[in-house]
Amino acid sequence: MEPRIHVITLGVADLERALAFYRELGLESPGVIGTQYTGDEATPSGRAVMFQLRDGLTLALYGREDLAKDANVPVSPPTTGHFSIGHLVGSRADVDEVLRRAEAAGATLTDEPHERAWGIYSGYFRDLDGHLWEIIWNLRA
Amino acid sequence: MEPRIHVITLGVADLERALAFYRELGLESPGVIGTQYTGDEATPSGRAVMFQLRDGLTLALYGREDLAKDANVPVSPPTTGHFSIGHLVGSRADVDEVLRRAEAAGATLTDEPHERAWGIYSGYFRDLDGHLWEIIWNLRA
Asked: In this complex, do A81 and B101 lie within 8 Å of one another by their Cβ atoms?
């Protein structure tokens, strides 16, 4: 397997709500696509949101039930802590600012941001569907 | 927030086992780092594995309990279907080959790979901790 990841897809309860949240955070997307693929009981719909990030990476939002159908796995309730997305910023103040902005958009901060022993200052938020983001300033960078 | 993601961290039950699995898939890592940060009941350890991917992205493995402590969220049991990682390859045969290799390394295929209405041929595997990977060939590329 080539050492590349092209897409990170987050399962969400409400595509429009999640789209609005990530737009509030500053990410840009043309909006919901794939609406022509309506799906049915067994087939997932194609309704999804794509945020084109830098360096060829795409952050996708996809309905939780559609993702479960597409992957042929049971739908499981939203939970937190299985994985996290790390986002680096340039200063301590930037960490605080991104967290503040996420909270204003409806995210939940899990803790006050603080320094970690391995040389970072960071804080986590949970997005509207429980997905964890860690906003990080590397003290050694 | 800048449109960048720098790290994807997967919570795992057993760091060495997950490291061996992803090495089997062809990813390279110096191994477990951060062992000097031992942690305690309240503080996460720093033990982690980093795979440096292309374009500045890092795939990290971190103990599930450490991730929960670090993010200050409850530990939740492994589940599948909250998110997926998408990995593009260059042909239908490459999809089959990566899935076969993942299965040989201990992953579970959730279904036979197949064409999806939106113009891709893909299949999913669950890694040893339930994290979903979709291996994708874009028929239109």
From this structure: no
Question: Is B57 a member of any domain?
Answer: yes
Number of domains in chain B: 2
CATH at A89: 3.10.180.10
- Complex-level ipTM: 0.95
Q: Is the Cβ–Cβ distance between A117 and B37 less than 8 Å?
A: yes
Rounded-to-integer distance, Cα A44 and Cα B107, Å: 23
Q: Read off the pLDDT of residues A47-82 as tens digits, 9 standing for 90 and up.
A: 999 999 999 999 999 999 999 999 999 998 888 899
Q: Residue A3: its chain B contacts at CB < 8 A?
A: 26-28, 51-54
pTM: 0.96
CA–CA–CA angle B61, B67, B71 (5° rounding):
140
Tokens representing A76?
A: 């499981």
pLDDT in tens, B15-43: 999 999 999 999 999 999 999 999 999 99
